[in-house]
Amino acid sequence: MTFLSILCALLIEQAKPLRADNPLYDAIKAFAVRVEGWFNAGQMHHGRLAWLTMIAAFTVPTILVYWLCAKISPLLAFAWSVVIIYLTLGFRHYSHYFTSIQLALHNGDEDTARTLLAEWTQQDTRDLNVSEILRIAIEKALITSHRNVFGVFFWLLMPIGPAGAVLYRIAEYLARTWNEPDNLRNEEFGQFALRAFYWIDWIPARLTAAAFAVVGNFEDAIYAWRNFAGRWKNETTGIILTSGGGAMGVRLGTEEETAVDLMPADALGGDAAAFEPEISPGEPPSLRALQSTVGLVWRSLLLWMLLLLLVSIAAWLG
Fold it and tell me: What phi and psi, each to the nearest 5 degrees, are found at residue 256?
């Protein structure tokens, strides 16, 4: 049932993608702002209450409707699952940005690529060169595919079914929105949302990294994961991007995140040339790497679908 629900939702999304600025998402954002206003007094336990309120407000109705549909008819339960998966999966929510950036760079239009990247990432891109544009676009694509697709897949397999997908997407949104704005970044209110999503995403992130390794260059992906993921400021991001970059043979991240610290020359008896810093495997991002990213994500999607099919067959036979 889960496999068929996901397959139908993916097919519907390919035919009619759900835009990221749709009215439902806008309503969720508005409700999150209201809940933050109700509970935020600058303390972590206030953030915990607000987080639980948001999660309960969306997961409990999802579970109740699913159980009611299952009582009435399996087809209704199936239809409800497809609706929820369609709303929580975001395989094509942001793909137009990636495709447009790829086309702009292919045509040599760096200014358009910078503008599109700024809209997508919400960061200043005016001083970025082509290599940095490519790197950030690839990183954003890999993280987005994990959080909008592969992480959702994992939680759909949990006993709470479609409510698991809702829990994952709401938790991801709260961890981001209650910590990114300048007025909340240093407050304790959003810290619980960050910690909660870290544990919610702990297993899915590692499964996504493993999938990248399986469908790409396995040895380089595992090597980069083991030796360089811990250098990233965000552990989960480091795991996904080091594995994804290694799988494609592309070096992602900043210099501090892709190479070990240089050993002081006096520690080497004054011979700095005797020390060769270890760097993450792969080449700097290129236009060809953008197409490799698309292929990696699609192959990973097919691997997840195959695993879901096997799990569904095993459950049916059992």
Answer: -65, -25
Which tens digit of pLDDT belongs to each residue from 18-62? 877 788 888 999 999 899 888 888 788 888 999 999 999 999 999
Give the position of tokens 């940005």.
97
Q: Is the dihedral of CA 176, 177, 182, 183 positive or negative?
A: negative
Reading the block at residue 102, the tokens are 């790829």
Residue 192 near residue 180, CB atoms below 8 Å: no
When computed from its CA atoms, the radius of gyration of the chain, rounded to whole angstroms, is 21
Return the closest-CA partner of residue 224 out of 294, 279, 276, 143. 279
**CB hemisphere CA count around 84 (13 angstroms):** 30
14-41 core/surface letters (b: 16 or more CB in 10 A; e: else): eeebbeeeeeebeebeeebeebbeebbe
Alpha carbon distance 287, 285 (integer Å): 7
Name the residue with tokens 């969720």: 28
pTM of the model as a whole: 0.89
Phi, psi of 109 (to 5 degrees): -95, 85
pLDDT computed for residue 182 by the predictor = 59
By C-alpha distance, which of 276, 66, 54 is closest to 178?
54
Using the predicted structure, report yes or no on whether residue 183 has a pLDDT greater than 60: no
**Helical H runs in the chain?**
2-15, 23-39, 44-72, 74-88, 95-106, 110-121, 130-145, 151-156, 162-177, 191-200, 202-215, 218-228, 235-248, 255-258, 287-317
Residue 17 has pLDDT above 90, yes or no: no
pLDDT of residue 114: 92
6 has which bridge partners? none
Domain residue ranges of the chain, discontinuous segments joined by + = 2-200+285-317
